[in-house]
Every structure is written in structure tokens, then in C-alpha cells.
Design goal:
Blueprint (H helix, E strand, L loop, with lengths): L11 E6 L9 E6 H5 L3 E7 L5 H12 L2 H6 L4 E6 L3 H11 L6 E4 L4 H6 L2 E3 L7 E3 L2 E6 L2 E7 L10 H7 L1
Parallel strand pairs: 3-4, 4-5
Antiparallel strand pairs: 1-2, 1-5, 3-8, 6-7, 8-9
Length: 166
């Protein structure tokens, strides 16, 4: 499992792009984590699944609603990562109104999640392998803060806790 002071492992995450720009076509686009984190301070929060109750009602809205406060503290980007495909993450981004606020990345096959050591088996709930609920502050690829939730809890990976740590 990743630890504070370590460099994030590289991996590929997918993001659904709703508006075509130079270098990003409409639909799912793949990005290398190592390229995205260079020279940036990023808050990443991981969660078990798009459209699930706690994730939709508390986790995403907390970060979405406090973007200005994170930016004021020098955070360049906020990422939400889940073991879902880019299409689902794009639909969830629309539902949660995160455009321009929180980047919604899919790790559809849990490859990056496993590289982080943050996978959990939610097969008993019909969800397969998922990401543990967590949050982290990453500065130029190095993990500065890491908050891991106990299964079924939402106490330390919320936006308020992370804001106090930035």
C-alpha cells in the first residue's frame, strides 16, 4: 500500500471529455498519472463507486462545493477516482455538476487502484473490486497526506478534513 512520502505509481486513468479541445477528443480520453501530476499540487479522493449513496450525497459534493477554498490554499486540481469506466464517470460528472471543478477519472479495470494497494473486494455487494474510500494530497507526484477510511465509514476522507490538512 502507498505511504506518505512515496511517489504515486504511474498508471492510466480515463476521463470523459464533453467538449472537444486541442489534444482532447470528445468521449473517453486516457491520461498518464505521472504526466498529470508534474509540478502540480493535487487533491485526490477515491471512492467505491459512481452513483452510490455516500459518494453521491457527501463525498463528491464536499469537494465540488469547496473548490475555491482549495484553490486559495494552492491546490491546482481536485480529482475523484473510482473503479468505473469513463462513460459512467462522465454521466456522474454531469449529475454532480463537477465540470471545471473536480476531474472525474475512471480506473475501469482497477489497475491503478491495485498499484496503489487501495483495492477492496465488494463482490458481496455485487460490485467486484473497488477502490477504498480515501483522500490524499499529492505535490509534484509525492504523497504528502493520506487518509484511509475504515470499510463502511466516511470520517477522514471528506473535504473538510483535507482542507484542514492542505
Amino acid at each position: 500500500m502507498i505511504k506518505i512520502g512515496e511517489t504515486l505509481p504511474d498508471g492510466v486513468l480515463s476521463e470523459f471529455i464533453a467538449v472537444e479541445t486541442e489534444g482532447c477528443s470528445l468521449g473517453p480520453n486516457k491520461f498518464h498519472v505521472a504526466d498529470l501530476v508534474k509540478g502540480k499540487k493535487i487533491v485526490i479522493f477515491g471512492l467505491p463507486g459512481a452513483f452510490t449513496p455516500t459518494c453521491s450525497a457527501k463525498h463528491v459534493p464536499g469537494y465540488r462545493d469547496h473548490v475555491a477554498e482549495f484553490k486559495a490554499k494552492g491546490v491546482d486540481e481536485i480529482w475523484c477516482v473510482s473503479v468505473n469506466d469513463a462513460f459512467v464517470m462522465g454521466a456522474w460528472a454531469t449529475d454532480q455538476q463537477t465540470e471545471g471543478k473536480v476531474r472525474m477519472f475512471g480506473d475501469g479495470s482497477a489497475i491503478w487502484t491495485k498499484a496503489l494497494g487501495l483495492e477492496m473486494d465488494a463482490s458481496a455487494f455485487g460490485m467486484g473490486i473497488r477502490m477504498q474510500r480515501c483522500s490524499m494530497l499529492v505535490d509534484n507526484g509525492v504523497i504528502k497526506t493520506l487518509n484511509l477510511e475504515v470499510a463502511g465509514k466516511f470520517e477522514v476522507s471528506d473535504a473538510g478534513t483535507m482542507l484542514a490538512q492542505v
